[in-house]
Structure formats: structure tokens, C-alpha cells
Design goal:
Elements lengths: L8 H27 L7 H20 L9 H21 L4 H10 L8 H17 L7 H96 L4 H24 L3 H5 L2 H16 L2 E7 L7 H22 L3 E9 L2 E8 L9 E3 L13 H10 L3 E6 L5 E8 L7
Parallel strand pairs: 1-2
Antiparallel strand pairs: 2-3, 3-6, 4-5, 5-6
Helix pairs in contact: 1-2, 1-4, 2-3, 3-4, 3-5, 4-5, 5-6, 6-7, 9-10, 10-11
Length: about 400
């Protein structure tokens, strides 16, 4: 099974260095022993033979399969063999005490269990047992070395275990960071998916609404016209039937216009509101020849379909009025995300609108001839829980400001 907390590159290098320490200690001890002057004859051959046995034992563990090297019994046998060869070498030449010290490093093979303390204690006993002159040992010397063994056991063994625990904690921390980063990425992907689904749901809702509108108004109106025309064809006096048919036709035409105006704009089918407004504003400026500045303030969020359609249609109609009636040279379009509300401002430096003193609206004759009209804009904005304000002074331009709640698409 894969390690849930894999070692870092630095940790793997450190563990590898710890495994090489016995080789280093054995090599240093052998070189010092062989280069020591005034050695008895034949001693060098014995040193080489014993060192060779120790080296073979060290290498033997590396030849074992990886799963065997993780077994505690195998490591215990390997550790005992290292200390045994170290003890023989140290008794042969005290300089091999250096090699015996490597037992402290090999104690990590048992960490973080209590056998780490046992390994350190045994290493200390072998270390001092091979260097003491037992013919001159006193009680004080024995107690002194026992105290050293105890201190070494708890300090070195505790250090091994503490290092292992710290290492595990760091690996858990790294894994937690990796998991958090993965979760954040998945959350971002999920948020994007939900936004797309909400956008698609808004499109579907709009299509279903239009289907109901056509069925409940246009289809029934056309059916009524057909019925009246068929009745007129059978009757002698057709005037009444024609009048009714004309009335139904006018009503159906009005419903058709209203339904077309309520359709979700094509720009919003392929983009969010800021991009849709930007594209529309660019085309409007090119077509009208009026300098138009478009800007977005605040952090944009995906809005519900009804809110986006309302703001887009208000901007579209307001700019249409500017092009047709204002005789302006400059205009501005600003979309502002302000927390719980979204603001849309359209302003121009044109002739202004007569009949509007400060904040108000166009009523009566002044509102006619402007297509969907300023009053209809106000009704559309009110339909989504917002407000529309119009400020205009003749000769000083007009400002149209719509404020609607920032209902996000994901809340649908």
C-alpha cells in the first residue's frame, strides 16, 4: 500500500546518509588502525579480515528485498550483527570504538517504538564494555558509566523518536496543504460548473416562459381570428366579425411585441452581463457615431436571468433614445456591483428631455414614439424589485439610473 505521507527529497537523502554512516565509521576506523605505527606483525591482516567480515555484514542488508528490510526481526538481527562485529573489532583495536558509535545511528531502524531505547542502551553497553579496563574497575567507575548509559539511552533514543514524530507531523501538514489545495481547485471547478448550469437553467426557463406566453396569448389570439374569419365567410354581414378579428389581431400584435421584447438577448446567451453590455455598447457607438465610454466597477457576479435581461434591455433602450432624440456628442454607460444591489447608469450630454424636472419620468405624450419607452423601462425595473430614476435638464443632457437587487444565478 502506498505511503499516505511520502517522504520529501531532503528526508530521503537524510535517511540514505544515515544508512551510510556505518560504512563511513568502519572505513575511518580501519584506515586509522592500519596506519598506526609500531603495530605487531600480522596485526594488519587480522584487522583487514575482521573489517571485511563487518563490511560483508553491512552489505548483506542491502541485498534483501525491500519488504524484508521493513521487518523488525530482520532489523534486529542485522543490528545485533553490527554490534557483534564492532565489539570484536574494538577488542582487537580500541580505535574501532568509532565503528561501534554507528549503533546509535542504526537505532532509527526501530523508531518510534520502545525498541529504540533498547538499541541505544545496548550500543552504550558495548561501547563502554569494550574500552574499560575491567582489571581496574571500581564501583564508582561502574556507577559512573551506568549513569552515562542511562543518560545516553534517554537522550539519543528520545531524540530518535522526537525526530520521527516531528517528521510525521510535517508530512501530515504537507498532505493537509495538498488536500486543501485540491479541495480549493475542486471547489472552484464546482463553482464554475454551478454558474454555467445556472446560466443554462435561466435560458431554459426563458424558453419555457416564452412557450407558455405564445400558447396563452398569440396562439389563442390567432385561433380567435381564424374563428371570426370563418364565421364571416359563412355570414352575410361580415362587419361585426371583421371588427372582432381586427381587435384580436391588434391584441395579438401587442402580445407579440411584448414577448419579443421580453426575450433573453442573444448577447446574454453567450456571455455574462458585463461582456454583453460591452459588445452592445461597442456596436452602438460604431452605428451612432457617438463617443460612448463603458466601464464596470466592483466585483462582477453572475446574476439571475431576469436581472440580466432587465439591465440589458434598459441599457439598450436608453442608448436607443440617446441616438434618436438626444443629439449628443458623448455618452457614458456604467455597470456598478455594489454588494446587495447592482446599478446601471446611462448619461449623455444631449438636449435633455422636456417634462422632466430633476428626478422623475416621462408620462403622457412625451413618452410616446420611443418604442418600449421610458415608462416601460420603469415597469420592467420594478418587475424585478428595482427602481428607475431619470434626471434631465433641457440643454444639459439626461441621466438614467436603474438600481436592482443583486440576485445571483446560483440562488435560483
Amino acid at each position: 500500500m502506498a505511503d499516505p505521507f511520502p517522504l520529501s527529497r531532503w528526508e530521503r537523502r537524510f535517511d540514505r546518509a544515515a544508512e551510510l554512516i556505518p560504512y563511513f565509521c568502519l572505513g575511518i576506523s580501519t584506515i586509522i588502525s592500519l596506519t598506526t605505527p609500531d603495530r605487531p606483525g600480522g596485526t594488519a591482516l587480522v584487522t583487514l579480515a575482521l573489517a571485511s567480515v563487518a563490511l560483508v555484514w553491512l552489505v548483506s542488508r542491502t541485498l534483501l528485498p525491500g519488504r524484508w528490510r521493513q521487518r523488525r526481526g530482520v532489523n534486529a538481527g542485522y543490528f545485533i550483527g553490527v554490534l557483534a562485529t564492532a565489539a570484536v573489532l574494538a577488542l582487537h583495536d580500541p580505535v574501532f570504538t568509532i565503528y561501534t558509535i554507528s549503533g546509535f545511528f542504526l537505532a532509527f531502524l526501530f523508531a518510534p517504538s520502545r525498541w529504540t531505547f533498547v538499541a541505544v542502551a545496548v550500543t552504550s553497553l558495548v561501547l563502554y564494555g569494550t574500552v574499560l579496563d575491567w582489571s581496574q574497575v571500581s564501583v564508582q567507575i561502574v556507577l559512573f558509566h551506568v549513569a552515562i548509559v542511562i543518560v545516553q539511552t534517554f537522550s539519543i533514543g528520545g531524540g530518535h523518536i522526537a525526530a520521527i514524530k516531528i517528521d510525521e507531523r510535517q508530512r501530515r501538514y504537507r498532505k493537509a496543504l495538498d488536500d486543501l489545495e485540491t479541495a480549493m481547485k475542486e471547489n472552484a471547478d464546482l463553482h464554475a460548473q454551478l454558474t454555467t448550469q445556472a446560466h443554462e437553467a435561466g435560458v431554459l426557463d426563458e424558453r419555457q416562459r416564452m412557450a407558455r406566453e405564445i400558447h396563452d396569448t398569440l396562439a389563442q389570439g390567432l385561433m380567435g381570428i381564424i374563428t371570426q374569419l370563418q364565421a364571416a365567410k359563412r355570414a352575410g354581414d361580415v362587419s361585426d366579425h371583421v371588427d372582432v378579428a381586427l381587435s384580436l389581431a391588434r391584441d395579438s400584435l401587442s402580445e407579440a411585441r411584448r414577448s419579443v421584447q421580453a426575450l433573453r438577448p442573444r448577447e446574454l446567451e453567450v456571455a455574462q452581463l458585463p461582456d454583453a453590455l460591452s459588445a452592445m455598447a461597442r456596436r452602438w457607438a460604431e452605428g451612432s457615431g457617438i463617443d460612448l465610454r463603458f466601464e464596470v466597477t466592483g466585483e462582477s457576479v453572475p446574476l439571475s436571468s431576469a436581472i440580466e435581461v432587465t439591465l440589458f434591455r434598459v441599457a439598450q433602450e436608453a442608448l436607443t433614445n440617446v441616438a434618436k432624440h438626444a443629439r449628443a456628442s458623448r455618452a457614458g454607460l456604467t455597470l456598478s456591483y455594489a454588494g446587495d444591489v447592482v446599478l446601471l447608469d446611462i448619461r449623455d450630454d444631449g438636449d435633455g428631455i422636456s417634462g422632466v424636472g430633476g428626478v422623475g419620468g416621462i408620462d403622457g405624450e412625451n413618452g410616446k414614439g420611443r418604442g418600449f419607452g421610458l415608462n416601460s423601462m420603469r415597469q420592467r425595473v420594478r418587475g424585478v424589485g428595482g427602481t428607475l430614476e431619470i434626471e434631465s435638464t433641457p440643454g444639459e443632457g439626461t441621466a438614467v439610473s436603474a438600481s436592482v437587487p443583486a440576485l445571483q444565478a446560483a440562488q435560483k
